[in-house]
UniProtKB/TrEMBL annotation:
<keyword id="KW-1133">Transmembrane helix</keyword>
<dbReference type="InterPro" id="IPR017452">
    <property type="entry name" value="GPCR_Rhodpsn_7TM"/>
</dbReference>
<keyword id="KW-0325">Glycoprotein</keyword>
<dbReference type="Pfam" id="PF13853">
    <property type="entry name" value="7tm_4"/>
</dbReference>
<keyword id="KW-1015">Disulfide bond</keyword>
<dbReference type="InterPro" id="IPR000276">
    <property type="entry name" value="GPCR_Rhodpsn"/>
</dbReference>
<keyword id="KW-0472">Membrane</keyword>
<keyword id="KW-0812">Transmembrane</keyword>
<comment type="function">
    <text>Putative odorant or sperm cell receptor.</text>
</comment>
<feature type="transmembrane region" description="Helical">
    <location>
        <begin position="144"/>
        <end position="171"/>
    </location>
</feature>
<keyword id="KW-0297">G-protein coupled receptor</keyword>
<dbReference type="GO" id="GO:0004984">
    <property type="term" value="F:olfactory receptor activity"/>
</dbReference>
<keyword id="KW-0807">Transducer</keyword>
<comment type="similarity">
    <text>Belongs to the G-protein coupled receptor 1 family.</text>
</comment>
<dbReference type="GO" id="GO:0004930">
    <property type="term" value="F:G protein-coupled receptor activity"/>
</dbReference>
<feature type="transmembrane region" description="Helical">
    <location>
        <begin position="207"/>
        <end position="228"/>
    </location>
</feature>
<dbReference type="InterPro" id="IPR000725">
    <property type="entry name" value="Olfact_rcpt"/>
</dbReference>
Length: 317
């Protein structure tokens, strides 16, 4: 009883994020690398959004969803990286417990929104390949807007369930999180109450959150079946090339995500999960604009047009 009273008196009001403080010798190199990746991610995603908005050739459902995906990537990486860069320089950072929970909600919500958007994009590719004659009717502008809104709303509502699970816990220490941002399972470890039921419930809900992934698999199963029925090799290659970029990003994104969130939490997995978390928070936002579209000729033409317009405007000024 005395121990419980003592622990309840030390309610968590702040947390210390260790980040990658163990890499003190390579801190400067890591900071330079992360800063470069952050700037490349911001610039490439913003350029993609500008190119799509300025080019009439890119006013298609695929690029409409890509713009939303770029917004998600810019939001998620911006909610983590400024803090991460400071962690690398200082060897850790102290933030309020409230700010930690807010970061968990924002990052988790945007992560879930990305899952939904990737599923929607796979459905778009399914309609384009399997129902080409009805594609413009089945995926018109109103349907695109509804699917995009549903992805955003669904992502932020789903994380409300996770916050409800956290609200059932009492947090009284320790104050240290061995991670570079406030993630669910490391934050749960700060609780002084029994967390087994909460961890099991969160682990079970993570399976439900994979429903967009199963929808993606179903879409690609139908796409593969349709491609295999194409008689010419040229036709099969052309059909597959329309979804190969999306399939690449989905593989990288879900591969790291499953390792992090579908593995039962333990002390030995936290350090490994920290590395995989860095992969999906950095690698996927960088890959999205590069793999999806910056190698696309239409996007390159649109970017060149934007650059010429900007240069001509400066020259006139």
């Amino acid at each position: 009883m005395e121990e419980n009273q003592r622990r309840n008196m030390s309610t968590v009001t702040y947390v210390i994020l260790l980040g990658f403080g163990e890499l003190e010798e390579g801190g400067a190199a890591l900071f330079s690398l992360l800063l470069t990746l952050y700037l490349v991610t911001l610039i490439s995603n913003l350029l993609l959004i500008i190119a799509v908005q300025k080019s009439s050739h890119l006013q298609t459902p695929m690029y409409f969803f890509l713009c939303h995906l770029s917004c998600v990537d810019v939001g998620s990486i911006s909610s983590i990286f400024p803090q991460l860069l400071w962690e690398v320089l200082a060897g850790g950072v102290t933030i309020s417990f409230t700010a930690c929970v807010v970061q968990l909600y924002v990052v988790g919500s945007l992560l879930t929104v990305e899952c939904f958007l990737l599923a929607v994009m796979s459905y778009d590719r399914y309609l384009a390949i399997c129902w080409p004659l009805r594609y413009s009717v089945l995926m018109d502008s109103r349907v695109c807007v509804k699917l995009a809104v549903a992805s955003w709303v669904g992502g932020f509502l789903f994380l409300g369930v996770m916050l409800a699970l956290l609200a059932s816990l009492t947090f009284c220490g320790p104050h240290i999180i061995n991670h570079f941002f406030c993630d669910f399972f490391p934050l749960v470890k700060l609780s002084c109450t029994d967390t087994k039921m909460v961890e099991k419930a969160a682990f079970a809900s993570s399976f439900l959150s994979l429903s967009p992934f199963f929808c993606t698999l179903l879409s690609y199963g139908c796409i593969l079946s349709s491609i295999l029925r194409i008689s010419s090799s040229t036709g099969r290659h052309r059909a597959f090339s329309t979804c190969s970029s999306h399939l690449t990003v989905v593989s990288v994104f879900y591969g790291t995500l499953i390792v992090v969130y579908m593995t039962p939490p333990s002390e030995t997995t936290f350090s490994l999960n920290k590395i995989f978390s860095l992969l999906y928070t950095v690698l996927t936002p960088v890959l999205n604009p590069l793999v999806y579209s910056l190698r696309n000729k239409d996007v390159q033409i649109a970017l060149m047009s934007v650059a010429k317009f900007h240069c001509s405007g400066n020259n006139q000024g």
